[in-house]
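Collaborator request, handled under Task 6.
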Amino acid sequence: MTFRTTSASADYVEDVSPGSGALPPRAWYASSDARSLSLNGSWRFRLSAAADAEDDSFAAEGYDAGDWAEVTVPGHWVLQGHGAPVYTNHLYPFPVDPPRVPTENPTGDHLRVFDLPEDWPDLAEGGALLRFDGVESCARVWLNGTEIGEFKGSRLPHEFAVGGLLKTVGNILAVRVHQWSAGSYLEDQDQWWLPGIFRDVTLLHRPAGSALDFFVHASYDHVTGEGTLRVDSDVDGRVTVPALDIDVATGEPVTVPVEPWSAETPRLYDGELVTPGERVPLRIGFRTVALEDGLIKVNGRAVLFKGVNRHEWHPERGRALDLETMREDVLLMKRHNVNAVRTSHYPPHPAFLELCDEYGLWVIDECDLETHGFVEQDWRDNPVDDDRWTPALLDRAARMVERDKNHPSVVIWSLGNEAGTGRGLTAMAEWIRGRDASRLVHYEGDVDCRDTDVYSRMYAFHEEVERIGRGLDGGTLKRRRLPLILCEYGHAMGNGPGGIADYQRLFEAHERLQGGFIWEWIDHGIKDDRYGYAYGGDFGEELHDGNFVCDGLLFPDRTPSPGLVEFKKVIEPVAISGDGADGTVRIANKQDFADLSALAFTWAFQVDGETIESGSLPVPALAAGESAEVKLPAPPEGVPGGAETQWTVRAVLAEDTAWAPQGHVVAWGRLPVAARALPSVAATEGPVPDGALITLGPASFDARTGALRTIGSVEVTGLRLDVWRAPTDNDEGAPWQSDVRHGELWRKLGLHRMRHRLDAVESGGDALTVRTRVAPAGWEVGLSTVYRWTSDGNRLRLTVSVTPEGDWTVPLPRLGVRFGLSGADAVTWFGGGPGEAYPDTRAASQVGRWRSTVDGMQTPYVRPQENGARADVRWAELGGLRIEGDPEFWFSARRWTNEQLDAARHRTDLVPGGTVWVNLDHGQHGIGSQSCGPGPLPRYYLNAAPAEFSFVFSEVR
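C-alpha cells returned to the collaborator:
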C-alpha cells in the first residue's frame, strides 16, 4: 500500500491563528514622497482542487509557469473562468466542524514577475514592504523563493518586510490562495463566496526614518469653536497645516479656531507629517463624537443617520472595485440625500473612506467578522466564545482600527455582524476602547448593550420602534438610556422597500431614534449572458439562497431602483409643505448642522399636470432645525374652470458642488390648489343588438358573453376583473418571518387561477350590464362583479361594482380590470410619475404629465415580479385609447401577462408578445419589506370590501 504525500504542508489553513510573518497593523495612506510600485495587473495562475494538491516548487526561482493561465489582480478567479461563485445567506457552504475545512478546497497559485523601476532607490538605502489590501480567504506568500508568511482576514491589510529579498530585476512574487480556511468560519457574511487577490498589491519603499504608524487626533469644541490637533507618531517628526498656521512636533497638541467637519459640511484641512525620511500628506477633519444625554452627538449636536448598508460589489469584478466605482457610489449616495454608510460587514477598500471624508458621509466601520451559520446549532462552538479564536478576533479588530483611525468620517466602530455573543467580542470592545476612546462602539448582537454604546436593532417593526422611541421598552437600565439605531431596516429586495416613510416619521418624532441604515446599497447580481444577471443557484451550488443576494437600492449596473428614488424623497433634508390655496409654503431645514445658504428655491404653477409659469422663490438661509412661512407669488390668471392646479416648490443646489451640479434637485413639495373635475358621460345612447355583436356608442361587444371587442377602430382583448399580481419578494416574505406572508396565502387560496363565471348579459335601456362571479377553484370565497357600460355616443363609461362573498381572511393583491391591446407603444399619462409607486412606496411619486413607452414603464428587477404601476392616474393614453378614471387609478402596461411575469425567474425569461396587457387598478396591496422585516402596515392592506370604480374610454384620433 502506498500513500500520496507532498512536501507542502497545509496545516496553516486550519490554524485558528491570524497567521505569521505580517507586520503590526498601521495607518493606511494613499501616497507619500516615498516610492511605491503597484503589482496589480496580469498574473500567472494555476487552480488546484485541494490545499495540498501541489507542492511549493512554483515559488522557486526558475520555475516555468509558461503554460499557466492568466488572471487579473485585483480580481476573483471564479469570475474569470476558473471555478464558480457560491452564494449563501448564512449557511456555511461546507460541513461545520471548526476549524476544519473540506479536502476539496479550491486553491489558486499566483505568480508575478516584476522589475524595480529605474528610479527605485538603491537596495542598500532603506527597506521595503509588500502590502496586500485584501485576499480571500487565506494566503501564503513567497518572494524570490523565500517564504515570508501566511495570513487570514480577507478584507484587511497585511504588510511584510521584504527589503532584504528584493532584486533589481526578475523578482518573483508567489502567492497561494485557498478558498476555505479557518478564517472562513469568521467570514460568513451574506454575500458571494469569491476567492482571490481582490484588492491592491503594492511594493512600498521605506526610507530610513520613514513614517511607521501615526494617529491623527483632531477634536472640536463646539462651545469655543476651536479644534485641537495632536498627531502621535512612532517616528518623531513635525506636523504642518498651512491654512491654520500650524507647525508643531509630533505628539504636541495645538488648539486653534477651525471650521468643523461633518457629513453636511465636510471641511478638510490639508496638512503634512514630515519625518526624517518621508513626507506624508494628511487630510484633517476636526470633529468630536460623544454619547451625551443618551444621544449620539457630533460637535455637540445629535445626528440623524439616513444611511445605507454597503457591500462592495461590481457585476463583473465582484468585490474588486476601482476608485471610480467607489466614487460613483459616494456620488450616488450624496445625490440621493444619503448621509451615512455602514460598511457591511467588513472594512471597505480604504480609498472609499477617503471619499467619505472628502464628500461627507458618516461611517460605521464594521470589522470583518460574522459567524451567522452557527445559529443553526444554537451557537455551539461559536468562535467568538472560544478563547482559542480570540487572538484572531483581536487581530481583525486591530487591523481595522489601525488602518482607518485617521478618517474623520468614521464615527463608530462596529465589532462585526451576526456573530452571536461571547468573550471574544468583549475582548474586541475593550481593546478598541483602549486604543481609541474618541469613537463609539456598535454591535447589534449585544442585546443588553454590555459592550456597546448604542442600542442597535435589525428589522424591528414600526410599533416596537415607536415604543422604544417613547421609552416604553424593557431591557437593562443601561440599554434604556442609550439611543436606538436600526443598523438594518427597509430590506430592499425586489419591489420595495415599503413603509420607510413611516419609519422616518418615527425617527423624526422621537429624539432617541437616531435613524437607520437601509439593507442594502446594491444588488449583487453577476452579469450573465444566460440570465441578464445571475443569483444564487445559477452556478449549480449545492446550497444557496437564491436571489436573496439581490436586495439593493441599486440594480447591479448601478442604475437607481425606485426604492432609492423613494428613499431620497423620504429623507430629503428640507421639508416643503403647505396649503397651496392660501398662497404660502412652509420651509423647514431638517439638517443637523448646515443652513440653507447652499440651496436655491424655485416654484412652478401647473395646470392639468403641465407647468405654465415658474420662477425663483426667495427663502431665508434658515439654520439647522429652523422653519419659516414663505409667501408664494400670485397664481397665474386665465386658468380654465374645472382644471386641476397645483404649486410645485423645489430646493435645488444654488451652485456646483463636488457631488452634483447647480440645479440638482435636493427636495420638493407639491401643494394642491384646485381638484380636477371628474369625468362624466351622459348615458344618451343605449345598446343595439347587431347579430353576434352588441354596439354601444363607439364600442362593440360579444352578444353572448358581453365581452368588449372594440372601441372605435381599437381592438380590445379579454377585459375582465383582475386581482392577481406576480408576487414581489416582499409579498413572498422570508420563511423565518413570524407574521403572515400574504404571497403564500394568495397562492394557497388560488388567486393566481381565478375562474370567471358568466351569470347574465343584460342589454336594455341605456346600459349593457354583465354580471359575473370571480372565484378560485376549491374555495367558497368569491367576488360578485358587475360591469355596467354606458355611452354618450363618443365615449364609453365602464362602472365596475365588486361585492365580496364568503369569508375573506386575506387581503387582495390588486383590484381592477385588465385587458389587451395590440400595437401599443407610446404612453402618456397625467398622474403620479415618472416611476412606479405603490401604497407604501409613493412618497416620490410626482403628479404631472408624463410620457414613456411600454418598455420604459417596466422596472427590471433581477428576479421578475410585480412592477411598473403608476399611482394617482387621472388619465392615460396608449394604443389609440384614452382612459380617464373616477376616482384616480393605478396604471401599468406590459408586453406579457401577470401570469407570465409570475412564472419568470430571470429577466431573459420574459419574451414580449404581440399584445400589450394593461391594468387599471382601483387598489393595490402595500409592499412592505417582509423579505426580511415587517410586511405592509395594516393601513396599506387592500382588504376585500365592496368597491365601485369607473373608467371612461375614448378613441384618440
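The cover message to the collaborator said: "The CA atoms of residues 387 and 424 lie 7 Å apart. Confidence is low (pLDDT under 50) at residues 1-7. Please let us know whether this matches your experimental observations."
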